[in-house]
TrEMBL record:
The keyword ATP-binding applies. The chain holds residues 1 to 238 of 333 of the full protein. Residues 4-234 form the ABC transporter domain. This is ATP-binding cassette domain-containing protein. One of its GO terms (cellular component) is ATP-binding cassette (ABC) transporter complex, substrate-binding subunit-containing. GO terms for molecular function: ABC-type maltose transporter activity; ATP binding; ATP hydrolysis activity. Keywords: ATP-binding, Nucleotide-binding, Sugar transport, Transport. The keyword Transmembrane does not apply.
Length: 238
């Protein structure tokens, strides 16, 4: 579970095509990073996968099913927003439980999943606090916890660490990588930060103006960049 295929997907806003026909396969369990300069279409691509934007043409398959016309709630994916998307008046426990309450899951199952998520994210001692009583990194973990309890086929992250200071960002990078190793769930991660891409990805997708310039492992991109743009962006010596 967690294989995502984009076939000839395009996206236009008004008359401007920001994603020309694009093909991409994200394998089950892979940590895929979309990287590229600001405005190149990373968020748009992630939002198309999430269903938060409609494709202008082409189709999107999730685990072999056509998901192109499905609303976000039916795609089985979880988008992780920045920490500010937490409900300030609710405890950590209630924030994490929120999507399960919406889905009318049994209290027993909710408690089980909250406990497992809290353990995976080292939040067990913070479940009764409010977001305002947490550090930035802890708030980010709560946002991830809220995604974990839905047991999604894939996690979608859009620059989740951009509001954190530099030191915290490095720690959270490692935590998200660790979490991927534990859960083995597909993760699609958007960043404009080359270092983040190189350190976290199994596979990097380099974008420029909505076009995929290259797809490969960090090592492949570093040693055999396909063109000057990739070389310059990744910082390889070529
Ligand atoms: P990135 O996330 O890589 O910075 P985006 O996906 O946000 O880039 O944007 C890609 C392009 O699409 C940009 O030129 C942006 O201005 C445009 N764009 C994104 N969303 C909208 C929208 N809702 N309406 C019009 N243009 C948009
Ligand atoms: Mg963006």
């Amino acid at each position: 579970m967690g294989r995502i295929v984009l076939n000839q997907v395009t996206k236009s806003f008004d008359d401007v095509q920001v994603i020309p026909p694009l093909d991409l396969t994200i394998q089950d369990g892979e940590f895929t990073v979309f990287v590229g300069p600001s405005g190149c279409g990373k968020s748009t691509l992630l939002r198309l996968i999430a269903g938060l934007e409609d494709t202008s043409s082409g189709n999107i398959e999730i685990d072999g099913n056509d998901a192109t016309a499905l609303p976000p709630s039916k795609r089985g994916l979880a988008m992780v927003f920045q920490s500010y998307a937490l409900y300030p008046h609710m405890s950590v426990r209630k924030n994490i439980a929120f999507p399960m309450r919406m889905a009318k899951m049994s209290q027993e199952e909710q408690d089980k999943r909250i406990e497992a998520a809290a353990k995976a994210l080292n939040l067990t001692d913070y479940l009764d606090r409010k977001p305002g009583q947490l550090s930035g990194g802890q708030r980010q973990r709560v946002a991830i916890g809220r995604a974990i309890v839905r047991e999604p086929a894939a996690f979608l992250f859009d620059e989740p660490l951009s509001n954190l200071d530099a030191a915290l960002r490095v720690g959270m990078r490692m935590e998200i990588s660790e979490l991927h190793k534990k859960l083995k769930t597909t993760m699609v991660y958007v960043t404009h930060d080359q270092v983040e891409a190189m350190t976290m990805a199994d596979k990097i997708v380099v974008l420029q103006a909505g076009v995929i310039e290259q797809v490969g492992s960090p090592l492949e991109l570093y040693h055999t960049p396909r063109n000057v743009f990739v070389a310059g962006f990744i910082g390889s010596p070529k």
